[in-house]
Amino acid sequence: VGWVAEEGEGLVPVASYGAPAAWLANPVPVPVNGGSLKEACADGRLSAAGGTFDAWLGPGGSDDRTVTVPLVSRDSPEGVLVIRASRGNRIVRDQRLLSAIGMVMGLALENARLYHAQRAHAQRLQELNRMKSDFLTTVSHELRTPLTSIMMAAEMLLEEEEAQDPDSTRARLVRNITKGASRLRVLVSDLVNVSREDEFQPRLELDRVPLADVIGNAVSIIQPLVAAKHQTVEVDLGPGDVYVFIDRLRFDQVLINLLSNAQRYSPPGSRIVLSTRLEKDEVIISVADSGPGVSEDVQEMIFEPFYRGDRSGLGLGLAIAKSLVELHNGRIWVESGPRRRGSVFCVALPVHGVEGNSRTPSAVASG
């Protein structure tokens, strides 16, 4: 039995019965270069093989007949079955039997080929995954030392500034540096864990907090990036003071990530809208941008680790956001399409109380 080589240019022997033992140990490929062999592989017909397979079987006797049976699966040649027997042997004269054998063996060869290809692909993916994990581990370790220095310096500066004037611009800026360094430390710790999705289970420190405070904090942090592109962030909070049960630091990551993406993909001078609304026992937080949008065929993929719509970033932001939202018993999705300009990223969280019934929209950050 021989099967068609990957390049489709010849046959490679893979199994035998009654043939010399040495031919499988040192297989000799047979080129598909015409004649009965080409007919068997390409045209799917039984044929007399003449001396084509003497390299496999050795020269036959004067009373021998060699028959080539095409092994075909789904009209595609997978290989050949070569039978040499005396002319009086029934098996070389029963063409219907040989054709049936060829069909069954062709399907078996196709399955074997697919299995080997899938196994090789899986091994390659495992190797890439290992390389990725090693890279992230190295990066996280390299970042920790300079990050610790930044945090220590920022904390010392913050003590001095708050002792002089806690409401000064310098104190506010240093406070933002300290908060940013703290968030970055968490992200560095997440880098390795997020590559192993089953291990990304950070411990949450939950507390009941007003959603408006969380949103205001996230918008103030993103403000320097917004100002650099002369953009505007508009906040439209729904009626009432909505309370949610969240880990402040972790949920800050979610909102900052969504706002950062909106800022990055929206053109200069554009508007970003962050709004909330109540639906039954959930609050829906929406971040709408003016970017190019997300095509429907990748709207699920963008929340997978290391998926990148362009060549920027590591492709971890939305994957981390999705994991964190789900740890808060929430949901996250994107709304985008040909009839909508830009994208709207939505997060749904369980509501833990609503107080009051009025609130007015406001633009809280602009450039």
What would you call the structural class?
alpha+beta
The average pLDDT is 78
Helix content: 40-55%
Strand order of the largest sheet: 3-2-1-6-5-4
Distance, first to last CA: 73 Å
Assembly category: single chain
CATH topology of the largest domain: Heat Shock Protein 90
Overall CATH architecture of the largest domain: 2-Layer Sandwich
What pattern of helices and strands is seen along the backbone? EEHEHEHEEHHEHEEHEEHEEEE
CATH superfamily of the largest domain: Histidine kinase-like ATPase, C-terminal domain
Give an overview of the whole structure.
The protein folds into 3 domains: 2-93, no CATH class; 128-198, Helix Hairpins (Orthogonal Bundle), CATH 1.10.287; 204-366, Histidine kinase-like ATPase, C-terminal domain (Heat Shock Protein 90), CATH 3.30.565. The protein has 8 helices and 15 strands. The protein is an alpha+beta fold. It starts with a strand and ends with a strand. The strands form 3 sheets. A 6-stranded antiparallel beta sheet has the order 3-2-1-6-5-4. Helix 4 packs antiparallel against helix 5, helix 6 (211-228) packs parallel to helix 7 (248-265) and helix 7 (248-265) runs antiparallel to helix 8 (317-327). The radius of gyration is 34 Å and the shape is elongated. It has helices at residues 22-25, 35-43, 54-57, 95-164, 169-194, 211-228, 248-265, 317-327; strands at 2-4, 10-13, 30-31, 47-48, 64-73, 76-86, 207-210, 232-236, 241-246, 271-279, 282-288, 331-335, 344-350, 354-355, 362-366. The model is unreliable at 46-50 (pLDDT under 50). The longest helix is centred in the middle third of the chain and has 70 residues, at 95-164.
